[in-house]
Design goal:
This protein is an alpha/beta fold and 230 residues long. The chain is built from seven helices and nine strands; from the N terminus they run βαβββββαααβαβαβα.
């Protein structure tokens, strides 16, 4: 039995993204899909004294058809600016000092010019902090197949999956019937019922970057998640 998930790479994603990773045996970053502007690919939200704020990696959009893999960083100083912003807003979080050195090194060492490479680097580092050992692959490692659902199915077959775990948004387009015909079950991630945790700057907000949970709860972070257990 092998469970696989496939998602486009996001920048310092929210806890639900890591719950999907922690729920499967192998996770594929869908990096050769089209880059979408004003989306989660290069930005996320954090809590600040002024309320929710976007933290965004500036990128070059040279073509409407460019992929995440082809997307390049526009400002090489972004990593210093982001680390300063995180340090300023989470300095008083209960576990910021515990993770300060890890994230400072991660940010100041993020000199890659590829958005895909940066997202993967941060996702893998955060996996380590959460105790997630799931194998991470990139879709660009595999041959392309035509058709949105068909391509996902081919990736699952190549990886030897018996179950495909999908985010709930894919219910609008995923053809589950072709998975059933191939003997691969489809499961849907459920993001409901998350417990609240200690968080700065009320009111409470679930839909923020995973760094918020880590800085506020430290090693207890998995207790407030679903697919990550310790």
């Amino acid at each position: 039995m092998k469970k696989v998930a496939i998602l486009q790479s996001n920048y310092i994603p929210w806890k639900g993204y890591f719950d999907i990773i922690g729920s499967v045996d192998e996770f594929v970053l869908y990096d050769d899909m089209q880059y979408t502007k004003n989306d989660w690919r290069n930005r996320n939200k954090i809590k600040t004294q002024k309320g929710l704020e976007w933290i965004t990696i500036p990128v070059r959009v040279e073509s409407l058809s460019q992929t995440i893999l082809e997307t390049r960083i526009a400002n090489p100083a972004w990593h210093k600016q982001h680390w300063k912003m995180l340090a300023q807003n989470y300095a008083k979080a209960g576990h910021f000092k515990e993770y300060k050195d890890v994230f400072e090194e991660l940010y100041l060492g993020a000199t890659e010019t590829s958005l895909s490479a940066i997202n993967r680097k941060f996702i893998q580092a955060i996996n380590g902090l959460l105790g997630i050992t799931t194998t991470i692959r990139c879709s660009s490692e595999f041959p392309l197949a035509p058709g949105k659902s068909e391509r996902l199915l081919e990736l699952c077959k190549t990886l030897g999956a018996t179950t495909y775990l999908s985010g709930p948004a894919a219910k609008d387009y995923l053809d589950a019937a072709i998975f059933a015909e191939a003997g691969i079950g489809v499961e849907w991630m459920d993001y409901s019922g998350y417990p609240e945790y200690t968080q700065l700057f009320p009111p409470f907000e679930h839909g923020v970057s995973i760094v918020d949970l880590l800085f506020n709860e430290g090693a207890n972070a998995p207790k407030f998640m679903k697919g990550v257990q310790r």
